[in-house]
Amino acid sequence: xxxxxxxxxxxxxxxxxxxxxxxxxxxxxxxxxxxxxxxxxxxxxxxxxxxxxxxxxxxxxxxxxxxxxxxxxxxxxxxxxxxxxxxxxxxxxxxxxxxxxxxxxxxxxxxxxxxxxxxxxxxxxxxxxxxxxxxxxxxxxxxxxxx
Amino acid sequence: xxxxxxxxxxxxxxxxxxxxxxxxxxxxxxxxxxxxxxxxxxxxxxxxxxxxxxxxxxxxxxxxxxxxxxxxxxxxxxxxxxxxxxxxxxxxxxxxxxxxxxxxxxxxxxxxxxxxxxxxxxxxxxxxxxxxxxxxxxxxxxxxxxxxxxxxxxxxxxxxxxxxxxxxxxxxxxxxxxxxxxxxxxxxxxxxxxxxxxxxxxxxxxxxxxxxxxxxxxxxxxxxxxxxxxxxxxxxxxxxxxxxxxxxxxxxxxxxxxxxxxxxxxxxxxxxxxxxxxxxxxxxxxxxxxxxxxxxxxxxxxxxxxxxxxxxxxxxxxxxxxxxxxxxxxxxxxxxxxxxxxxxxxxxxxxxxxxxxxxxxxxxxxxxxxxxxxxxxxxxxxxxxxxxxxxxxxxxxxxxxxxxxxxxxxxxxxxxxxxxxxxxxxxxxxxxxxxxxxxxxxxxxxxxxxxxxxxxxxxxxxxxxxxxxxxxxxxxxxxxxxxxxxxxxxxxxxxxxxxxxxxxxxxxxxxxxxxxxxxxxxxxxxxxxxxxxxxxxxxxxxxxxxxxxxxxxxxxxxxxxxxxxxxxxxxxxxxxxxxxxxxxxxxxxxxxxxxxxxxxxxxxxxxxxxx
Lengths: 147, 611
Hints:
heterodimer, A: alpha/beta, five-stranded parallel β-sheet, 5 helices, about 40% helix, B: about 600 residues, alpha+beta, five-stranded mixed β-sheet
């Protein structure tokens, strides 16, 4: 199964979380290319391959934080899901909020999964692992070339 | 007794006493006057009759004396005495003498006359022939008549039934020689007429004479039977009179009829003169006057009673109005005022009441104002408190929420350090990292607990009907694993439907039953849930057979992060019961616990009944 690395877009403004996510993927031994967008505007530019992102690959999964500068995670989620070229990319909401209304709202906006950032490192690694298992192996996603 | 009848009674009693007193006084004084007048009248009559009687007797005495001094009478008497007895001269002298005195009898002056021989007392000549030859030598009129004119008072005479009076005078020759005694019986019907002679218009007046033998001498006017003269009379007046007294007495008369009696002892006649009048007649004007007084009194009494009632009413009406007013005022009619109609004390009373009512009303208004102000202040404080409480919860919520982010960083990276570098640095580093990880983890737990605690107030759901049996069922479902592991048995009675936040109530039962299992004793955990209707609220109890605790900790265990055991004995932060308390209080109830070490614990909480 370990073919080409998974292309991941992580929309996260906190470098600590970014690094932690990278470490978690490393610990989980998932081959990946993590692309980072520090805010919502940048994330959409990446996805639409605008400006300096003209040559970036199309991500296999988007890890989206809800609290972002400039354009927050909810707006980004709406734009992704209403964009016909991006709507099929799985979006995992990754946040420290465990508030029910946040979770409900996210699902209403067609988030594919909602994962609270665990405090426990081992659990975090397990979460990352499950993201890989679930979204990159079990779910049969449409091949790149089909779009 | 009520005031009106009491006042009326007093008034009427007073008026009655007054009228009776005045009436009696007037009656008695009238009666006294009448008595005096009657007595004067009776005494005058008595005097008059006494005078008339004496005059009559004197007349008779003078009459007999004149006859005895008549020369013809003396001549014939001398001739009779001088003649030898039974001689023709004697017979002629006798006849002449009788013929001489006969006209006096025929004229009615004396019923009969006789001449008595002075030595022997023998009747030698008489107008009544049956008297001749009889001896009168012991008769007082004979003995006294020898010395001069004399009238013998009434005496009993067998011949002259029933009584008699006799006048006598001596017959003396011109030379003074005693020839005989001329005696003449008196006509007592004349005396009777004198005594019975009446004046005026009286009806029960009466007069009579009684002699020393207590016998009637004259016929009492009010007794027609002549036989009364042979009967004695024993009245008080007569007894006194015969004892030689004169006076007045009010006593019963011979007919046992009350009378005013004037009695006079007539010593010259040795007779008692009684003049009397019936009290009934004498006092009739007094009686009539008394009747009039009584009638006037009766009318006056009726008027007085009416006045008394009117006066009492006029007194009690304002008092009753005051009483009614005070009662109504007392029941809250603060605007009530009494009419201030009169200027007297009752009007003053009404004014005083009104002043009091006004003062009270003012005080009441002040009190209401104070109360309203106080209520408003309490309201303000409550609102302030609620806001401050809410702010505090908000703060706790935000703080615990926002603290999670940096904490997660600390926690995650210390754990990463531990994972990557355990054994690669020195032993101290490993230990330090371990403590950092542990601290961060514990802090995480605490913050989560704090967040859960503040969520009870911040994130509560609206109240709705919730059957507690279902709530309990949900809680048990959530605890299923723990219950199975501990082989715990949870039972319950019939549980009511309450109104509240169902998910919080689930958490409440979950925490309480979870505690019961956690603090189990040696025996398998047994938990019993029941509910009791306490009127306005339900009292729930959760009883376990766990280790229990000393009652002194009954309050403390509900305080957040307060624990009775070390982490080594029982894990936990001490948040569960604090959340229970918060949930119950959010529902408006109370929570408390009863326990003894080793005897299990029973948690109670109340939920108010709501619609």
